[in-house]
């Protein structure tokens, strides 16, 4: 069965924003109902309720679609929301990407990326991520940034560029940074992390959590490259940013330079880390530095 790419993207943009509304409401109420799935791996009622409306609505609109979400949820009829399937015009898509085989699609959903940040009040690191993969490759992505100024939603993909909206359909003028600037994790201790990052000789070093926010810094042109060299990110953390960066020919691989694949049979964890960059030459610089660093350590 074929589905319209612009309708899928339209639904996902609005669902990411509805997810952000849930997250802000839970934060305002203060009743996070936090449970821990593992060490430093919290889940709140915002994670659960946001994922339920994303999955419930998408399953209703596109029966049979493959969705892999971070949380385990039970869906109810009340989780189905009304969305405008023509928010994004079909004409912006190249002809070959307007109709997609539903059996070749996988959506990777992180309803609340940066839950640890959410629980400690570092709200700028909180995002909602929906990545759209087709034939194993990330082709589109949506990142909603609920606690940033004006709560922007970034979206884009192969053949359609990078855009941002603030409740409306607005195009974002993306400007690649002139310098080699690297975003690295702030909270999570990385083995040999500082030693490796020093070898990069970046002109600017930025520290931020979680992966969605790190991706936003690259997508918005505030940094050229995001690097994480541990097996702590998952496909639902990276697919959205990967998909959006396809809109400008961005470069997303593991630290060995291998493309990250997103079909439903792939391991969920990105075991060899992540390099995400708007500039191929900067990504290649990181990959070569990692190879050299490992040969000496």
From TrEMBL:
GO cellular component labels: cytoplasm
GO MF annotation: an example: inositol-1,4-bisphosphate 1-phosphatase activity
Pfam families: Inositol_P (PF00459)
Catalytic activity from the UniProt record: 1D-myo-inositol 1,4-bisphosphate + H2O = 1D-myo-inositol 4-phosphate + phosphate; 1D-myo-inositol 1,3,4-trisphosphate + H2O = 1D-myo-inositol 3,4-bisphosphate + phosphate
Name of the protein: Inositol monophosphatase
Domain of life (superkingdom): Eukaryota
Record keywords, A-Z: Hydrolase, Lithium, Magnesium, Metal-binding
Transmembrane segments: none
Record keyword Phosphoprotein present: no
Binding site for Mg(2+): 70, 110, 112-113, 237
Organism: Blepharisma stoltei
Obligatory cofactor(s): Mg(2+)
PANTHER family: 3'(2'),5'-BISPHOSPHATE NUCLEOTIDASE 1
Recorded family membership: Belongs to the inositol monophosphatase superfamily.
